[in-house]
Design brief:
By secondary structure, this protein is of the alpha/beta class. Helix content is about 40%, strand content about 15%.
């Protein structure tokens, strides 16, 4: 008892034994920070809007340290982009330059939900995404100013940042060209059995490109772990979305593919959406929102046999797997004539059967005894292989005959795997590029209104202050430190050397070509390039 009294009278003990409700804000902050970084539950600013899927929960779990990390990262990115603006106007940066200020929550929120083993590919507004993937400020400013210490050795400039070791595959200058490349990365992941995903980012202007739909179709057709992210900042160059798209609901553009509209100015909403997309991509390969994957749920329950009949729709996955893996599925049939046998097998046993068939009249003959006997069998009418070879859309007739006692629907048994589109509703404060003042097609009041009401940094600042994680002074100190880091990086980047003219020919071919070129048809023709 005496020991407890001495402890209570000590400076440390008085803090510990004092009820937390009467501690000051700074005392509460120090008290809780000394303990474990406990989970905070925060609701997103607005609900998710979904297409062909159930949206994720609005309730997001985070921690004090994660919120502080979000604030630091976004403040650093904002300062970096403002500095790039000044360097461009001082003519230290040449060529094209597209700034990301206002959209920082998309890059930071996405990165918090994935790992460096996941791949990211984006368009030309790429500085902040590169930083999230492990790049440094010195690499950023060196590349912007065309110096050797840049991430692309000074030869790429603003639009062509790259960091393979961080899973970042660019920076691409052609509108929409990165989308099929991203699907190609996803194909490589599936081919190599790599349990990761690829995020392909593009803008609302690129959402009208034909290659987007081609890539989406292939991603769905080949079951690729591809997640398409539309960063909708509402202006493609100088054209508002309502002037360029009849339907600006970009998350619905996949038609058959699920979509999710996200508040791209809320870093926690972006985190939740990307986590949701990745989990489903890895589970369902890449993303499906029906009730169960055929092969998996059937094996698990063990009470439903698969019968695959000739000329059925191969994209219906359970039947497709059945055909390929006869060692696993014992009841495969290639003759429609065996349908009668299947029905009587079901009649005599307790096991159910899922029967795929084509355009055979025998199937319809068997519907009557199956229905009269309340047999545990489900008939599905497919289209034939030609349809599935050219489209990822699982279009089937509504002629679904289900005689399971529980009246199970077709979608409850099979899963047709689809990609997903995430639409990030965000906003850029600068113009499209440095040559665009950004005020000819929108008003200054519109820009200032977004800054005041939706700014991603200010939103996190309010959360940090509301939960007594930090003080206003400490947050301002972080902003000062960000300015210092950026200024130091610029100074070091200016000291970096410009590339030598001979570097122009490096990294063009895998094995290197040097500075000589030989004629393709005549070996004696040889030209030395300057």
């Amino acid at each position: 008892m005496a020991l407890l009294s001495r402890f209570a009278s000590s400076q440390f003990g008085s803090k510990i034994l004092k009820p937390t409700s009467i501690l000051s804000s700074s005392e509460r902050r120090r008290f809780f920070s000394s303990s474990s970084d406990e989970t905070l539950t925060i609701e997103t600013s607005i609900p998710f809007t979904s297409h062909n899927c159930e949206p994720p929960s609005r309730t997001v779990e985070t921690t004090a340290s994660e919120l502080m990390s979000f604030f630091r990262d976004m403040v650093l990115m904002r300062r970096m982009e403002i500095a790039a603006d000044s360097l461009y106007k001082a003519k230290l940066i040449r060529g094209f330059c597209h700034l990301y200020d206002g959209q920082e929550a998309v890059a930071v929120g996405m990165e918090s939900a994935i790992t460096r083993k996941d791949c990211v590919i984006t368009a030309y507004r790429d500085h902040c995404t590169f930083l999230c993937r492990g790049g440094t400020l010195i690499e950023v400013f060196s590349e912007l100013m065309g110096r050797r210490d840049g991430c692309s050795k000074g030869k790429g400039g603003s639009m062509h940042f790259y960091r393979k070791e961080g899973g970042f595959y660019g920076g691409h200058g052609i509108v929409g060209a990165q989308i099929p490349l991203g699907v190609g990365l996803a194909f490589g992941q599936k081919y190599n059995k790599d349990p990761n995903v690829t995020f392909s980012l593009y803008g609302d202007g690129a959402a009208n490109q034909g290659q987007l739909f081609e890539a989406l179709n292939i991603a769905a057709l080949w079951d690729l772990p591809a997640i398409l992210v539309c960063e909708n900042n509402h202006y493609g160059m100088g054209t508002a979305e309502w002037r360029s798209a009849k339907s600006p609901a970009y998350y619905k553009r996949g038609d058959y593919a699920p979509g999710l509209k996200v508040d791209g100015m809320d870093v926690l909403a972006v985190k939740q959406a990307c986590k949701f997309a990745k989990e489903h991509a890895l589970k369902n390969g890449p993303l499906g929102f029906l009730l169960g994957r055929g092969a998996e749920c059937l094996i698990e329950h063990g009470k439903l046999s698969i019968y695959y009949l000739h000329r059925t729709y191969p994209d219906l996955k359970a039947g497709h797997e059945c055909k390929k893996r006869k060692d696993r599925w014992k009841n495969c049939c290639v003759s429609v004539a065996k349908l009668q046998v299947l029905v009587w097998v079901v009649f005599d046993g307790e096991e159910g059967a899922l029967i795929f068939f084509g355009c055979s009249g025998l199937a319809f003959i068997l519907l009557l005894p199956a229905s009269l006997g309340l047999l545990y069998c489900c008939f599905s009418w497919g289209f034939g292989s030609s349809a599935s070879d050219i489209s990822g859309v699982a279009v089937t007739f509504s002629h679904l005959f289900c005689f399971l006692k529980a009246s199970v629907l077709f979608e409850d048994i099979l899963l047709v795997i689809l990609s997903i589109i995430l639409e990030m509703d965000t906003y850029r404060y600068h113009g499209h590029s440095m040559s665009d003042p950004g005020s000819t097609y929108r008003t200054r009041d519109e820009i200032s209104g977004v800054r005041q009401e939706r700014d991603p940094i200010e939103r996190v600042r309010k959360l940090v202050l509301a939960h007594d994680i930090s003080t206003e002074k400490e947050l301002k100190d972080i902003e000062k430190e960000a300015r210092k880091e950026v200024d130091e990086a610029i100074a070091k980047a200016k000291e970096s050397q410009v590339p030598d003219p001979s570097d122009l020919f490096t990294n063009v071919y895998v094995k290197g070509l040097g500075v000589e070129a030989c004629g393709a048809d005549r070996k004696e023709v040889k030209a030395t390039l300057p």
